[in-house]
Amino acid sequence: MTRAGAAIVCLTLLAAVIGPAIAGVDPAFQNLPLRLEGPSLSHWFGLDELGRDILARLLAGARISLLVGAVVVGISATVGTLLGSIAGYYGGIVDDVVSRVSDILMAFPGLLLAIAVVAVLGPSLTNVVLALALIGWVGYARLVRGQVLRVRELEYVQAARALGATTPRILARHIVPATLPALIVQATLGMGGAILAEASLSFLGLGVQPPTPSWGTMLNYGRSHLLDAPHLTIFPGLAIAVLVLGFNFLGDGLRDALDPTMSESRRG
Amino acid sequence: MLRFLARRVTLTIPVLLGVATLVFSLIHLIPGDPAQAMLGEAAPQADVAALRSQLGLDRPLLEQYADFLSGLIRGDLGTSLRTRTSVTAQIVERLPATFELALAAMLVAMAFAVPLGIAAAAWRGTFIDHAAMAVAMAGMAIPNFWLGPLLAIVFAVELGWLPVSGRGGIDHLVLPALSLGLALAAMLARMTRASLLEELREPYVRAARARGISRSRAVIVHAFRNSLIPVVTILGLQFGAVLTGAVITETIFSWPGIGRLLIQSIGFRDYPLVQGCILLIAMTYVAVNLFTDLAYGLLDPRIRYQ
Question: pLDDT per residue over A14-34, tens digit each?
C-alpha cells in the first residue's frame, strides 16, 4: 500500500508539473457550443458548463491542491515544531500558554474555525492557507511537545547540556532531529488533510475563486448539473479521493516503517 | 468520582471562555470597517453609522467584550442583520434538524463499522481483513461533498427511490445520513478492528476458549463488548467532525440545520448570525467531549485516578 501511495503522489506531482504543458489545452479556453459535452476521444473527461476541458482543469487544479497542501503543512509544521519544542523544553509558563491556546483552538471541531476565518477575511487562496495554518500548527505542536518531554531527559541530551551546549543548539541539533520521524508521518497525513480541507472550503464557495481551477470549486459548480452532466461531479471528486488516499497510504506506510511499535499494534 | 467530575468541569471553563473570546474577536478581524463590510461599499454613511452603533462597534473594546459575555450568559447572541430577529431563536429553531442528522449519521457509522471491524479482526490477515481495511481506507479518503452528490445521482436521480433534498420523513434522512456517516464508519471500522484484536489477546478470552466456548461466541459475547468502550469513546469525540461535516452535508441536501444556516449567513454577511452558529457548534463540541470524558471515567475507574 505504501508503494501504491507513493506512486499516486509522484504521478500527481508529475501531472501537476508537466501535465498542463503536455495537455495542449488551455484550462480557461471556453468552447461554448460544446458545453457540458460528456467524455469523448478529443476531451477524455468531457467539458464543463462553460465548455472548458475538464482534464486540463484537473491538471491545473492539481497544482493548486498540492501547493495549498505543501504551504499549509510547511507553515503548520514549522510553527508547531518551534512552539512545541520551546513549550516542551522550557515547561512552566511558556508551556502553559502554548497548551491553553492549543486547547482553545482544539475546541473548534475540524474545519469550523477555518470557515469562520475565511468568512470574515473573505474567500481567497491566501486566506485559505492562513486559515488552515491557523488550526494546523496545533497538531504538530502537541506532537513535538510530547516528543521533547520524552527526549529532553535522555542521557545524550543531558551530556550535551553538561558539555555546555546552548539551549538553541540542544534543541536544533539534539532534540528536534529526534522528533523528525513522527513529524514526517504527521506531515504526510497532513498533506491529505490540507488538500481535503481546501477542497471543502472551495466547495462551499469560501476557497479558491473562479476562474482559477480548483477541484473543490469544480465540484461545487458540478452540483448544478447533477442530472444532465454527472461527469462534472465524478472526475474532480475522484481526483480528490485518489490523491488523499495516496497520502494516507504513504503516511500509514511511513508510520509502520519509522515506528515499529505502531506497526506491531496495528497488525495485532 | 465527585472530585473527578469537579476537576473536569473546572478545566472546561477556561476553554469555553477562550472559545467565546475567539468568536468575539472574529468580527474585529474583518479588514477595514466591519459595519461597512457588512452593508457593502455602496451603503450610505448614515446606515453604516447606525449599524456600527447597533453592533456596539463605536464603544470601547472592553465594554463590547463585557456586553458579549453577559449576553452569552443570558443566552442572548444578538440580532440577525438580515431578518432583524433574535440569533438565538433562529439557532434554536434549526438545532433539532442538525441533531437529528448527526445522530442518524452516527447510527449509520456504527451500523457499518462494527460488522466490518469484527469481520476484519475475526479473520485477521485473510482476504476479508485486507478487503475490509481497503474499503475503510477508501472511505476515509472519499470527501462527503463528493459522496453526497454521487448517492443523489444513483438513489434519487437514477433509481428514484429517495428524495434528493429537504427535511421530512425517514426517507429524507437516508441520503444525508449515509453521506455524513460513511467516512466516520471507515475510521471506526479500523478502530473496532484494532480494539477487538487487543481484547482477543487477553487471558480471559483464551480461558473462555479453553472452556470450550466457540470462536464466534468468544469474539461476539466476550471480547466484542469490552472492545466497544474505546470505540464508543472515539465516536463521542468524533461528534465534532460530524458537526463540521454537517455544514457540508446540509448544504448539499438543503437540510435546514445550523450548518446550512451558517453558510447562508456567510453569504449574506450576517456576522452576528455567523458568530452565533460558530459559537454554538464549538460549545456543543466542548460539551460532548466533556460528557464523553465523564462517561469514560464512569466506565473505567483508572481514568478517575490519573
Answer: 999 988 777 778 888 888 998
- Residue B32 reports pLDDT greater than 80: no
Identity (one letter) of the amino acid at B305?
Answer: Y
- Say if CB B91 and CB B258 are below 8 A apart: yes
Residues of A in contact with B145 (CB under 8 A): 199-200, 203, 216, 219, 237
Q: Residue type at B191?
A: M
How far is A168 from A183, CA to CA, in rounded Å?
A: 19
Contacts (Cβ under 8 Å, ≥6 apart) of B201: A268
Judge: A116–B143 Cβ closer than 8 Å, yes or no: no
Which residues neighbour B42 within 8 Å (Cβ) at sequence distance 6 or greater?
Answer: none
Q: Report the share of chain B in percent with pLDDT over 90.
A: 35
Asked whether the beta carbons of residue B143 and residue A200 sit closer than 8 angstroms, the reply is yes
**A:B CB pairs within 8 Å:** 140
Per CB-CB distance under 8 Å, the chain A contacts of B22 are 104, 108, 113
Partners of B79 in the beta sheet? B86
Quick check: B300 and B229 in contact, CB under 8 A? yes
Cross-chain Cβ contact A104/B22 below 8 Å: yes
Residues in chain B within 8 Å Cβ distance of A219:
145-146, 149
What 3-state class would DSSP assign to B264? helix
- Given a contact cutoff of 8 angstroms between Cβ atoms, the answer to whether A203 and B179 are in contact is no
B276, closest residue in chain A (CA to CA): A116
Helix (H, G, I), strand (E, B) or coil at A60: helix
CA distances from residue A52 to A37, B197, B271 in whole angstroms, order as listed: 10, 51, 36
Cα end-to-end span (Å), chain A: 18
Do the chains contact at B145 and A234, CB–CB below 8 Å? Answer: no
Residues B268, B38: Cα–Cα separation, whole Å: 8
Decide: helix, strand or coil at residue A47. Answer: strand
Which candidate, A69, A72, A71, A102, places its Cα nearest to that of A84?
Answer: A102
**Of the candidates B186, B131, B178, B188, which has an alpha carbon nearest to the alpha carbon of residue B156?**
B178
Amino acid B302: pLDDT: 65
The beta-carbon neighbor of B146 closest among A219, A252, A265 is A219
Q: How far is CA B158 from CA B133, B152, B249, in A?
A: 29, 8, 20
ipTM over 0.95? The verdict is no
Query: How many residues can be counted in chain B?
Result: 306
